[in-house]
Amino acid sequence: MLRSRTTARLLLLVLVCTLPACSSLGVKPWQRELLAKKEMALDANGVDSSIDDHIYFSKEATSGGRGFGGGGCGCN
Amino acid sequence: MAAAPSDPINLDSLRGKVVYVDFWASWCVPCRQSFPWMDEMQRTFAKDGLVVVAVNVDHARSDATKFLSEFSPAFRIAYDPDGVTAEQYHVHGMPTSFLIDREGKIQLQHAGFRARDREELAGRIRALLATH
Questions:
Q1: What is the distance of C-alpha B62 from the center of its chain?
Q2: pLDDT digits (tens, 9 = 90+) for B17-65
Q3: Which domain holds residue A47?
Q4: For chain B, how are helix, strand and coil distributed in percent, rounded to 5?
Q5: Which of the residues A27, A28, A30, A76 would you substitute to probe the B interface, choosing the one with the greatest number of B C-beta atoms within 10 Å?
Q6: What is the structure's pLDDT at B6?
Q7: Of residues A28, A37, A75, nearest to B30 (C-beta)
Q8: What is the DSSP letter of B9?
Q9: What are the chain A neighbours of B31 within 8 Å (beta carbons)?
């Protein structure tokens, strides 16, 4: 009896914990200020990334697919 | 939303006008394109009752001030550094703009800004200005 009540409470707690779900997940579009900064880009250094790209191309015989488009504004 | 800490803009006071509300930030690349266009809209249609309100969502006011000094826009600027108003408007991209008719109803929501959007948006503004 006691155990089942504890289990029920625990279950309730777990269920309540799932209620917020993904409601606070991620960064809002107007909060992307820092992400939009140049130094936050995956390829912040142009020369460096072009060298990396060249090595990648030479080894894999493929190019492109690195980084992503857009300035972090969430509109592209 | 506040134009200055002591000077909030209340959209209710703009009832009877067609209001173009634009959420922008200094770091947002398309915003740079939208500013000259919004300026043009404000200058062209001010006499017909258009009010452009650009809501800045930069955390630092200095970033906004620097951006504004490049454009010195003729329209009204409001500041929402904590995104309170942006949250209420469910802004899902930067920039996002809302076109509000004379009755205060949102007639159009538009995310992003591209050169090809200009004509269509201007058309919608013109259509709303024509209704009295």
A1: 19
A2: 999 999 999 999 999 999 999 999 999 999 999 999 999 999 999 999 9
A3: 31-65
A4: 40, 25, 35
A5: A30
A6: 41
A7: A75
A8: P
A9: 73
